[in-house]
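Aim 2 progress update. The chain analyzed this quarter is reproduced below.
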Amino acid sequence: MVTDLPAPWDRPYPSPPIAELARSVPEDAGIRAAYGRAPAEMTKAATVSASLGDAALHSRTGAEPAAAVARARAVLEAYEGADDEDEAVASCRAEAAQMLNLEEE
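Predicted structure tokens:
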């Protein structure tokens, strides 16, 4: 198990350790599936925290931005190597990059 990787919020996009690790292992290792599920799990955490009301305000306000950042990184990684001339690709990349820039401010 890799334990010396920095936390996602401590690294700039693109999160090279995660992306490289996901590409470096065999498909049957399951790591790609785990990283693919990560944005959905962050979204679930935000949803569950929101359903708990004011008692979970701090958990929710921590989970919401983390979920948004995870989704933005997933968009950029999904379009890695895609045609820059495609208007939809450019639009999705720009929106995801803007989200990550807001997160850094």
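Residues 5-17 have pLDDT under 50 and may be disordered. The longest helix spans residues 57-78. These observations will guide the mutagenesis experiments scheduled for the next reporting period.
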